[in-house]
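ok so for the tutorial part 2 we go from a plain amino acid sequence to predicted structure tokens. step 1 is just haveing the sequence, like this:
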Amino acid sequence: MTAERAEPQPTAAVPQLPPAASRPTTAAEFQAAMVHLYRGEVGRANTWRSRLDGTTNWAVLTTATTLSFAFSSPTNTHVLVLVNSLFILFFMYIEARRYRFYDLWRSRIRLIEVEFFAEMLTPSPEADDSWRALLADDLLHPRFSIPIWEALGRRLRRNYIWLFAVLFLSWCVKVLIHPFSTSESGELLARIAIGPLPAWFVLSAGVAFNSFLAWLLISTREQRHYHDEGLPRAEARQRMGTGELP
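step 2 — the prediction. this is what the tokens look like for a chain of 246 residues:
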């Protein structure tokens, strides 16, 4: 006997959806989507904003611990204060990188606020929908709104300049009073020297380090004229699509 071949069963027809271009969203759908997008971007911005506080807390705790140990005994070396300055610079770099991500989400939030919510509250006759294309392009191709140097300058100006100032003054006091107070230049130069490194080398490195911080403050000061948390409408549009890729 030969086995009978099973007849193929007809498959259910898969409904063909029309292309997205022929299915425009309604006003209610668009508003609901924008509200959910806004809430999601606010959540992202808050997450990265909280991470900024973490690096600042690390820097403050490290500085307090270092200074407490350095001044606890006249025999403790001042090199700890110099090494701590490098750690603070590293923390500032980490925080600047996190700040760029925070600023990415915040720029989108501000664009939605000034173009969508503000327009719903007080419609403007000269308003247009070009902001939708800017937002869509940023969603498809996310870009940082500010370069790393400007982020470093902002974090230095807001928080870290005070830590560096405290470290500099503490180093000067440490050299002057430990192991005993003195004002003789020869004795001071002997204290400044670190092992095989002469005093002039240590002082030159310190001048270069602080010159870099001063350059960072000056070179990034005038690049943004608006308040961080309140971008005007024109500036919010300008920042979209003009940054660099993450």
